[in-house]
Amino acid sequence: MNTFYIETFGCQMNAHDSEKVVGTLVQQGYTQVETPEQAELVLYNTCSIRDKAEQKVFHRLGQFGRAAGKGKKFGVLGCVAQQEGEKIFERAPHVSLVAGSASYTKLPEMLVQLESGNRRVTGLTFDSAETFDTPFTRRDNPHRAYLTIIEGCDKACAYCVVPFTRGPERSRTSESVMREATGLVERGYTEVQLLGQNVNSYRDPSPAGWDFAQLLAETGKTDGMRRVRFTTSHPRDFVREIVQAIDEIPALCNHVHLPVQSGSTAVLNRMQRLYSRDEYMRRIEWMKSTRRDIAITTDIIVGFPGETEADFEETLRLIDEVEYDSMFIFKYSRRPNTSALEYPDHIPEEEKTRRFQILQERQRTIQMRRNSNYVGRSEEVHVEGYNTATGQWIGRTSQNKTLNFVDASLPAPSGDQTHVGKYFDVLVTRATPNSLAGERVTLRARLQ
Predict the structure, then answer these.
(1) Burial class (CB in 10 A: 0-12, 13-18, 19+), 350
(2) Can you tell me the distance from the alpha carbon of 271 to that of 264, in angstroms, rounded to the nearest whole number?
């Protein structure tokens, strides 16, 4: 068994977890292949935030179940693995490995068990200090890197499975984070994204005692670091010092993802979000009062149990007031082990869909207006690729906006991506609700 395939579902945390898994497997002598048909070991790194993501995983397992018994083995990793545990073996008998994210440091031991013929290998404990670092990480992007600073969550939001699938909060030492950030710059990375289920709950367990604002600021001051991003924030722990650091340190990207989930304090209370609408809006005011123009994005859940039409109208008024740069909208989904399962007044699916569509259309109008304000401005972009169909380079601004641009001085690459990872000034000439378009305004690339 020396070939493997891995498919990743879900968030940036899962994407980075897969980088750790791939790095470990390659170090153990495995070779990654492009399709599950080619692989002797097929792994699914799973997400359980929404029911559809979970269903997709079991659909994948069902598709390839007939291949079991022909030298092919299957593993379920991540949140669904932690949530369902050994029940997965009953639901999908051809699965041989079930492992949560906290067990990836033990992958070599689990692989030995698999190779020796063990048909039910598990890794489902929440060990503390070891959960962050695997000795080997194969990063998918040579210019932008994920860096986990905290795992787990101590909140108890009524709809969320994360405390059950990722465990309690466990922070890395500031020294280990800074060592990794410095090492990434030395290896040529110019952009780092700090990750955690709730990054601003970070508390340095070492005597240094840094909070998240200090860690963010020091990461942004790392020599050679061009951009630092972070996700995701919980409003309860989002302090003004974070905004002040973004305003003062150029390397800190002027973009904050701050999930509100609802514009109604009554719904927020039922969600057990630990803040009111007014408290959330105070944080928005901090960001809107800065010298730098901070892009603000959010998550919203529609159709939470008991959400009235008046509650929904409060959400619509909130997005009109904030004018988010973008938004992820979700229809409430029942999740196991969550207190919302016991709530009365579950909203019919058709009503969730109606509210989703209204919110989506309202936000689309806001995004078109927000993005139109960029036309005529020059923005620095970090080049991510080239679209041969449109003849445009693909870049991303500090505010996390996609900016596609043309440049006659840069020949269209034929399999050559030498310009990817560089920084260019681009004049924005056109806007859509979801992206910007423009043309390069100088002949000089600002190299890494």
Answers:
(1) exposed
(2) 10
pTM of the model: 0.86
Q: Are 232 and 197 in contact (CB under 8 A)?
A: yes
Helix (H/G/I), strand (E/B), else coil: 290: coil
Which helix (H) or strand (E) is 371 found in, with range? helix 349-372
| pLDDT tens profile 37-73 | 889 999 999 887 666 667 777 777 777 665 554 678 8
Report the interhelical angle of 277-288 vs 309-322 (nearest 10°): 10
> Residue 298: phi, psi to the nearest 5?
-155, 170
CA–CA separation, 156 vs 272, rounded Å?
Answer: 7
Which range, 47-56, 118-127, 280-289, is most confident? 280-289
- The residue among 135, 134, 76 whose CA lies nearest residue 102 is 134
Greater confidence (72 vs 412) lies with 72
CA 238/CA 199 separation, integer angstroms? 9
Task: For residue 240, give the 3-state DSSP assignment.
Answer: helix
Distance from chain centroid for Cα 283: 22
Question: In angstroms, rounded to a whole number, what is the distance separating the alpha carbons of residues 110 and 395?
Answer: 40
Bridge pairing between strands 423-431 and 378-387 = antiparallel
Alpha-carbon span 407 to 367, nearest angstrom: 26
Domains detected in the chain: 3-126 (3.40.50.12160), 130-370 (3.80.30.20), 378-440 (2.40.50.140)
| Alpha-carbon separation of residue 288 from 233, 252, 322, 370, 443 (angstroms) | 17, 16, 9, 14, 34
